[in-house]
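Friendly challenge for the regulars: who can give me the structure tokens for this chain first? No prize, just bragging rights.
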Amino acid sequence: MSTLRTAHSWRHGVTPYQWRVLLVAWLGWVFDSMDAMIYALVLHPALHDLLASGGAPVSDGEIGHYGGIIFSVFLIGWAIGGVLFGVLADYIGRTKTLIITILIYAAFTGLAALSQDWWHLAIYRFLTALGIGGEWAAGASLVAEVWPEEKRAKAAGILQSAWAAGFFLAALFNLLLRGFGWRVLFVVGVVPALVALLVRLWVKEPERWVKARAQEQAAGIHRIKIVELFQGRLRRPTLVGSVLAFVAVFGLWGATNWTPTLIGALPDMKGLGARTLEQYKSYATMALNAGALIGYLSFGALADRLGRRPVFALMCAGSLVMLPITFLTPHAYVHVLLLLPLLGFFNNGIFSGFPIYLPELYPTRIRATGAGFCFNAGRVLASGGPFLTGYLVTSLGSFGRAASAIALIYLVGLLILPFAPETKGQPLPE
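First reply, four minutes later:
Bragging rights claimed.
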């Protein structure tokens, strides 16, 4: 009964409009996630078709090489979009930026179905990523500024849970449409354009932003906001936040998002038909994201109880341990299926910390710029993760060994955390 009372109490006092804002931002992030995961699910069949020449067989090494390049290009686009649209969200508003970014990633995901060569796919994924990166900065700032101070962490945890929901959605479409080829999955990515309409109809600019922007305009302030992130008291949180995000992104895209490829390399998956194999990959993705969903929803409650830094440390340590265990020890599909939820809890759950923590580091007038920069700037370096994994597959002989080597990045996260400001119990800076 006490648990039920606690669950009810944190929702008490939240207005219908605040729930509406969270829902719209959540839907935008759901489809962000779905569009990002679609590529991981169709990586093998798409590149097999696009790289095939004269009926010659395409090796796993070739798929790993070109797949790594496209993953890297995607992350660079995500970084650029996150930084640029974060700045734009501070200038023109959160809701306008949400609409623009959702339309961008919906349109170019759909256009990826027209790819005729691997570099066509790379270009479309880069353009898709511009919108995906920008949507996060605007959405995270919007929710942080609209929701009550004492409930902000739990709302941000719910927002990040959309990433797991998007993965489930991608896996579900992969199951339902696997007989129609990989291009159809990209066409499904046009659906998020409908969310842009909801944003236009349901959501207004946060009062915090309206007030801060009016003050800037009245004072005639037109500074380059990114420069300010590295000045005075903002320098340390910017560096720490960027490194933490780099670690999380490097680990996820350099290792965990290769899970569908790992499944295809298992001994008991050899010889299965293409449709059956895609079905098993979808189940594995669902298992990974079942654990991720619990991690996303747990981070806010744990952060309110223990503090932001200890929970980031827990997620880094768990990821450091679970990646090698998951990618190296199993020799059968059922073993991987049992381990993936634990990996998802840590490796994906850490991302709930960013919509909670990063907006708490910056004042309103520069909040989206700061959060967008930290969450995305590290992706330029992290973009080397997938490419490095492709190289390590060739050097070490398997995806499992390559992913286990990538896991060492979480040591960097543990080493930077002592320098991170603790924001538990503090109001958003004005």
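The domain at 16-207+226-419 is CATH 1.20.1250.20 (Growth Hormone; Chain: A;). The two ends are 38 Å apart (CA to CA). Your move, everyone else.
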